[in-house]
């Protein structure tokens, strides 16, 4: 019989599990503590549950935790981990230590439907949505899990295209029965899908990052086909309906491509587009990927771009480039692994 994973179940769902198995209601909190606080790998390790109750659980459930199957380590300390999530299906999580911070970039899908020109994951096409269990497993079984300070949903896939499972995972990350992280430690990155944007803003307190990359809709469409369905101007109109002036942070991700979007014409249009919106811009160095005719802008250009934005009231930073020697941009390692599987 196929067993169900306990990892990824909310407290409400765990209460239904114990009720169905005729176990005391309080055991749901005990199970949650074993899963999300102690991070056990087996039901047998839940020693404050009676042997009878553990045996009942084992008939139907497993913890559902599984270690990475491969890793690549960068000279700068960045580590890319590969997790198996199904038959010949793999996702990546990237661990990025930086002084007093340690960030994990987490995936939400195998492949992606968005097909952004600059993204290796999009070249895979779409395979499956990850379950909340598979999303949390990237954190739960990370060797450096106890060192994490931040989570970014910026890995493989479009989080708003798998919103039910992503919201469940975010609840567990931030709940008192779960990992107990402040929502300020978690950021979701999206191209901006109409069907999920409002719901995420209204149902989660986590930070929001919008992948913009070009302020001109016609040019953004060439980089990001999702622009056709929900334009950046419409996205900004929706964002203006919400208050980002308090604890929740709104940012825009902007990969700077040489000769494509690195001139001050684009900086001026960003200022015009985002005028009056409480937000920041993260300028990102481009990691080259195979068969894509895009190059990263020179650092001098990025500095000029940043300084222009900042001097005109739009706070901008240049994100440090990490893990370039291990192709830390998402999709590279999983694509190679799936090619090997298909050959075998």
List keywords for this structure.
two-stranded parallel ribbon, 10-stranded mixed sheet, TIM Barrel, 2 domains, alpha/beta, 34% helix, 14 strands, 12 helices, single chain, DNA polymerase, domain 1, 344 residues
Considering DSSP H and I runs of 4 or more, what fraction of the residues is helical? 25-40%
Count of helical segments? 12
Stated plainly, the CATH topology of the largest domain is called TIM Barrel
Order of helices and strands: EHHHEEEEEEHEHEHEHEHHEHEHEH
Number of beta-strand segments: 14
Strand content: 15-25%
* Ends distance: 28 Å
CATH architecture of the largest domain: Alpha-Beta Barrel
Strand order of the largest sheet: 3-4-5-6-9-10-11-12-13-14
Low-confidence stretches: none
Question: Could you tell me the mean pLDDT?
Answer: 93
Major beta-sheet overview: 10 strands, mixed
Can you say what the CATH homologous superfamily of the largest domain is? Aldolase class I
Number of domains: 2
User: Rg from C-alpha positions?
Assistant: 21 Å
Structural class: alpha/beta
CATH class identity of the largest domain: Alpha Beta
Shape: elongated
